[in-house]
Amino acid sequence: MKRLFPPEHETVDKGHGRIETRRIWTTTDLNDYIEFPYLNQAFRIERITCNLRGELMRHEIVHGVSSLSEKNASAADLLKFNRGEWEIENRVHWVRDVTFDEDRSQVRKGSGPQVMASLRNLSISLLRIAGAQSIASATRHLGRRSEKALRLLGLTT
Q1: Whether the Cβ atoms of residue 59 and residue 47 lie closer than 8 Å to each other
Q2: pLDDT tens for residues 112-156?
Q3: What's the DSSP call for residue 62?
């Protein structure tokens, strides 16, 4: 890796009662040494989370690889992509946990849990594609209007 100081890019975000600093370092120096399909860049991301008083809450360091070249993705881009991936991940899991109450599901045998998770993901995706602002209210709305739900699935005209 390149020298750790200074980072190639840094962001500081304040929200939800905390301040989060993200730093990234990237390198192509490992490309000739690591046998990893499509490797174009390796990176190190440091995340420091403090409360609003400046007290450390969490300090994480993660490493990763990307198939994107330096020309196609700068350090700032990789940091933004990494943040976006977690945002999507958190958004989907939050909806599954809260709206669909997935944690209390009693489907536990065989492939049932995986099938139900796939159906929940499909529902969320279809509702987002249809422009739903709130998955919970869209689910309630369609629950009372089966013809609209079938139309969303493309099963009726």
Answers
A1: yes
A2: 989 998 998 888 889 989 998 888 899 999 989 889 888 888 887
A3: E
Residues of the chain with CATH 2.20.130: 1-73
Q: Where are the beta strands (DSSP E) in 1-75?
A: 9-15, 18-27, 41-51, 56-66
pLDDT digits (tens, 9 = 90+) for 51-72: 999 999 999 999 999 999 999 9
110: left (phi over 0), alpha (psi -120 to 50) or beta: left
Among the CATH numbers 1.10.720, 1.10.287, 1.10.510, 2.20.130, which is that of 1-73? Answer: 2.20.130
For residue 72, the 8-state DSSP code is T
Q: Which residues pair with 49 in a beta bridge?
A: 20, 58
